[in-house]
Amino acid sequence: MEDGIISVQNLSKVYASGYQALKNVNLNIRKGEIFALLGPNGAGKTTLISIICGIVNPSSGTVKADGHDILSDYRAARGKIGLVPQELTTDIFEKVYDTVKFSRGLFGKTPNPAHLEKVLKDLTLWEKKDNKIMTLSGGMKRRVMIAKALSHEPTILFLDEPSAGVDVELRREMWDMVRALRDNGVTIILTTHYIEEAQEMADRIGIISKGELILVENKNDLMKKLGKKTLSLVLQNPLEEVPAELAPFKVELSADRTQLTYSFDSQGEQTGIAALIKKMNDIGIGFKDLNTSESSLEEIFVKLVGGR
Amino acid sequence: MHFNIHAVKAIYFYELSRFFRTIFQSLASPVLSTSLYFIVFGSAIGSRMGEIDSVSYGAFIVPGLIMLSILTESVSNASFGIYMPKWSGTIYEVLSAPISALEIVVGYVGAAATKSVILGTVILCTARVFVNFSVAHPLVMVAFLVLTSVTFSLFGFIIGLWADGFEKLQVVPLMIITPLTFLGGSFYSINMLPPVWQKITLFNPVVYLISGFRWSFYGISDVGVVASLGMTLVFMSGCLAVIWWIFKTGYKIKN
């Protein structure tokens, strides 16, 4: 297995309570990609991130960040990583600039007011730099968390549920910011409950369930591989039932009997659409409209996780 | 050996800024309570008491009262300093930074000990307003002040790591530190106790701290100054060993 910028091998975590949060996880994150980690609550997403970032000790297995072991070479490994946690955990009595400056110092970087100014300006926080964090809105606090994570110029950025509790406008802005970071060479790993976010942002997707990484796939490949397309035909005249001649196509008749729905594999050599329309024509069933739709990532996710 | 000095400075000054942000509460409360001790024990009761080893009672209790404040404040400051990030979740940032356990301890404990030294100095000046005294061995006095502040800040740091609720933070200073300090010769010489209690009280580590500190003021002590210094170092070593074990195993931090 080739080593990525993040390399996780045979990683397991059993908490002191006996709960096994991760089971033999293997994962490679490629340099410069946006990787989305999807999973239901309690699947192990945050535990995986926490181990990589040094917040939680692994029970077994190895993790490398940019070639540095997170335990034996933790200084080099952690220096590469920035983390935006799920919770808005900051000292609310502290000022914006001071808390970002503190974060940079923690990571052993010499003071660099120019960089901090750029980060704060990029996140539209510069005007608020002297404000106490307690005076900021939830969205602004989220930006502060991102500014803290970027303060030491990481090459790997973890975003744990970055859109939790932010409005649509800020979410869109964050997506733009994440893309801009990726364009500047930062590898992004995000966990999210918002499938739309993964669908919008990710190059590759990993799905974790009950501590096991059940799938890692290029987003487009995943959607092609698992995505079903459906063809809906709006009939000219209602049908009493699906004619026997159409049974091989497994079409479904809508409750109001005015629409036939046909599911097909978009990647298959024969979709069967032409044959279906010909057969309908042969038996005299006309249609006045048709459209196709594709499975969303959410439907794929539910299908994968729900099947376990 | 690499030492992340920027991280240590970041933690140290961040903690000190918290202290200076609440400077009035941080200093006013201990100074007020110490002043009350001097008024009650030093002036009101002390004026009716004889000298102890040729030192007036008011002056005799000065080292003990400074120790009383330093011990409780060191434990409180250090335990609160590390417990708050744990409680609020901001500890994630420290744990995910390229910083060793030693550097974390130096930052947090260094800040807590600095606060205690500042407090001790302020109380010393306050005491001088009420009582006339001199310091016979100023360097030894400073050494004991710093050593005690560091040692009990280490102890407080352990409590902060161990505690999983605010009540636990309060229990140790209230139920252990304060009684041991009161029974450790803050207000009396242990030679004034019955013989059997003189023996028993030697198991109280605070006796050695107060005795050594008092020696630096007046050249009188209940136990030898070397024994005092030795006990302080033993306690400090014990605290360092416990902290080393906590970080090595991740006890209550990374599990």
Shape of chain A: elongated
Global mean pLDDT of chain B: 87
> What is the general shape of chain B?
globular
Largest sheet of chain A: 6 strands, mixed
Number of strands of chain B: 0
Order of helices and strands of chain B: HHHHHHHHHH
Task: Explain what this protein looks like in three dimensions.
The complex is a heterodimer of chains A (308) and B (255). Chain A has 10 helices and 14 strands. With 308 residues, chain A is an alpha/beta fold. Chain A has 2 domains: 6-224, Rossmann fold, CATH 3.40.50.300; 227-306, Alpha-Beta Plaits (2-Layer Sandwich), CATH 3.30.70. In chain A, a hairpin with a 2-residue loop joins strand 9 (204-209) and strand 10 (212-218). In chain A, helix 3 packs parallel to helix 5 (138-150). The model of chain A has no long low-confidence stretch (mean pLDDT 87). Chain B has one domain (5-249). Chain B contains 10 helices and no strands. Chain B has helices at residues 5-21, 23-45, 57-88, 91-95, 101-130, 138-162, 166-182, 195-201, 205-218, 225-249. The interface between A and B is medium-sized, with 34 and 27 residues.
